[in-house]
Task: structure prediction
Amino acid sequence: MPSSTTLIDRFGRKVDYIRLSITDRCDFRCTYCMGEDMEFLPRDEILTLEECARLVCAFVDLGVGKVRITGGEPLVRKDALKLFQDIGRLPGLRELTLTTNGSQLEHYADDLRAAGVRRINISLDSLKPEVFRRITRVGDLSKVLAGIRAAQKAGFENIKLNAVLMHGINDHELFDLVDFAITQPLDISFIEEMPLGEVDHARRQTWCSNDETLKRLQQQYTMLASAESTGGPAKYWRIADTHTKVGFISPHSHNFCEDCNRVRITCKGELFLCLGQEDKVDLMPLLRGTTDDAPLRQAIVDSMQIKPKGHDFDIRRAQPSVVRFMSMTGG
Result:
């Protein structure tokens, strides 16, 4: 059973949310997330699914109540469903969620819901096949739309779309994306592009401020400020006379570090204490070749002392703030 131990960092913030990447691989190559010619990790350098489950158990034992499984694209990992089944009913786990590009949901939505996944985030940056292909390089929009329909049919408690708007690429689809969310009905969040990894476009020219996005939406819809929260960094507004709320994740324009409650674990078992910093603890040696999880739990507790106060994103820099791609840390 979960202990009464909680994870508190040196700034007094309680960490009760982890984002665990189970693969660095993906069937898309989104321009803001991955390089075009990625080199993926060999199998023996990534956590086994059994090690992933032990890791989740250790964090839940330390008071973490929310776990999000990410990638890459988590559903391209062979037997990924078994991990959801193994951890979905853990005592003390309040919420198990998934971030996905949606391409595999047509096949897995029902089983994920049965395994205990309550909420799901689906990336959708365009409703135009040619723009979608430009952003994802190889993605098939029809598969994602079929995945969204499958998720709706499976009966998740909440389905949220995630979109990264970029000037000159897909920002002209802002209203189309919101109208799509309204008609479904689904929620949607807009995420400012983050300076992680080298990309093949100039972020200073493509970056869209969420302040600007909100102003555009206020001209088209009646936007009602909301105090609702899903435990992450998004700030929400409701669209009057609809069932849709719009979230804004704004690491540049509205730094949300003061109430950060999350850490990220890569598929290599690297515990990153902040998405925008390099502070990390390597947990794989504490999992592989041993069945004693006491040192693992102690390392997690100790890691709270190196969690930084916040990230240092600056879109004006010529070089990325962090050289690793988003897909390496987890979406």
Notes: The domain at 15-329 is CATH 3.20.20.70 (TIM Barrel). The radius of gyration is 19 Å. Confidence is low (pLDDT under 50) at residues 318-324. The first helix runs from residue 49 to 61.
